Amino acid sequence: MVEEGKEALEDGERGEDHKALHQEYKTLVDYLLKSFMDDLQVTPDQLEKACGMAAISTPFHKVRV
């Protein structure tokens, strides 16, 4: 996917090629995340809660707050 989309990103413009590549990437991430959640039998709410809890305990979050 990266090699295929390389041209769309090289020119620095955000035209239709860039939008299409972005949409394809979002679709891929959604699919992978759903597969991960299905494998772990986790609901979207459970994942959101777990991510929120993890973010609160990271040093990065403490520095920014």
Automatic annotation (TrEMBL):
<feature type="domain" description="BART">
    <location>
        <begin position="13"/>
        <end position="53"/>
    </location>
</feature>
<dbReference type="GO" id="GO:0005737">
    <property type="term" value="C:cytoplasm"/>
</dbReference>
<keyword id="KW-0963">Cytoplasm</keyword>
<dbReference type="InterPro" id="IPR042541">
    <property type="entry name" value="BART_sf"/>
</dbReference>
<protein>
    <recommendedName>
        <fullName>BART domain-containing protein</fullName>
    </recommendedName>
</protein>
<dbReference type="InterPro" id="IPR023379">
    <property type="entry name" value="BART_dom"/>
</dbReference>
<dbReference type="Pfam" id="PF11527">
    <property type="entry name" value="ARL2_Bind_BART"/>
</dbReference>
<dbReference type="GO" id="GO:0005929">
    <property type="term" value="C:cilium"/>
</dbReference>
<keyword id="KW-0969">Cilium</keyword>
<keyword id="KW-0966">Cell projection</keyword>
